[in-house]
Amino acid sequence: MRSVLAALTLLVLLGGMVLPVRAEAHGVRRVHYESTAFVVEVSFSDGTAASYAEVLVFAPENSDVEFQNGRTDAKGRFAFLPDRPGNWLVRVNAGMGHGFDMEIEVLPGQVATP
């Protein structure tokens, strides 16, 4: 009885390795398009770029949750593609008390569309 049970277990395990199994996975879609981005360039009063400063972007009428967040690049630049017209709030924190809030007006013709 024990050898029958062992043989049956072995058969089930081997069957699972031999039988084809349908595998599903998710992928990442990539799209490339040209659009006009809004760029904020941040520097200190001596002209030095504010590299890797924290940036938060808030959509019009939504100051609770950021639309986009990230950091400036090595040259102090940050770009975003607004998806609707209105006044967008950009909040920059360059550390040690340095930073600012700025409002950028996006007109209907300036909205990014893929």
Keywords:
6 strands, alpha+beta, 1 helix, four-stranded antiparallel sheet, single chain, 114 residues
Characterization of the model:
A hairpin with a 2-residue loop joins strand 5 and strand 6. The protein starts with a helix and ends in an 8-residue tail after the last strand. It has one helix and six strands, in the order αββββββ. 15% of the residues lie in helices and 32% in strands. It has a four-stranded antiparallel β-sheet, with no helix packed on it. Strands 1-4 form a two-stranded antiparallel ribbon.
Layout: helices, strands, pairs:
Blueprint lengths: L1 H17 L19 E4 L12 E5 L9 E4 L5 E4 L5 E10 L2 E9 L8
Radius of gyration: 27 Å
Measured as a percent range, the helix fraction is 10-25%
What sequence of helices (H) and strands (E) makes up the elements? HEEEEEE
The count of β-strands is 6
Mean pLDDT: 85
- The coarse overall form would be extended
What are the segments in which pLDDT stays under 50 over at least 5 consecutive residues? Answer: none
Strand content: 25-35%
- Structural category is alpha+beta
Total of DSSP H or I helical runs spanning 4+ residues: 1
Distance between the termini: 67 Å
Q: Sketch the major β-sheet.
A: 4 strands, antiparallel
